[in-house]
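[agent] plan:
  1. take the single chain provided in the ticket
  2. run structure prediction with default settings
  3. attach structure tokens to the ticket
  4. add a short note for the reviewer (M.T.)
[agent] executing step 1
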Amino acid sequence: QVQLVESGGGLVQAGGSLTLSCAHSGDTFSEYAMGWFRQAPGRQREFVARVSSSGRPTRYSDSVKGRFTISRDNAKNTVYLQMNSLKPEDTAVYYCAADPNTSYRSDYFAPTNYHYWGQGTQVTVSS
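[agent] step 2 finished; step 3 output follows
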């Protein structure tokens, strides 16, 4: 079974930067597309970014385009989310997720397509 562990969350002032990491426990990391989602209290889980198994292409929600960058290092079994120019509305629990389907997905933004999830890491952006 795939296990994912997020790290790197914390408190940051608006305009600041933070980088999240997600470690994959198995030896099949390169077979998965990886995504980042976030969920604020009282809100539905929201798609943030996705990277294919090979590292390209990447996809982003409109709310984070130009500010966030998803990347992966298959040799290290790790996916990253670099977050710049953070805003208070970015405050949420951020989740790493794995999609075993490496084929093209038109519904890459749907949480139900991701079979494995981490426990989440809190990101809080102050005004």
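[agent] step 4 note for reviewer: The mean pLDDT is 94.
[agent] ticket updated
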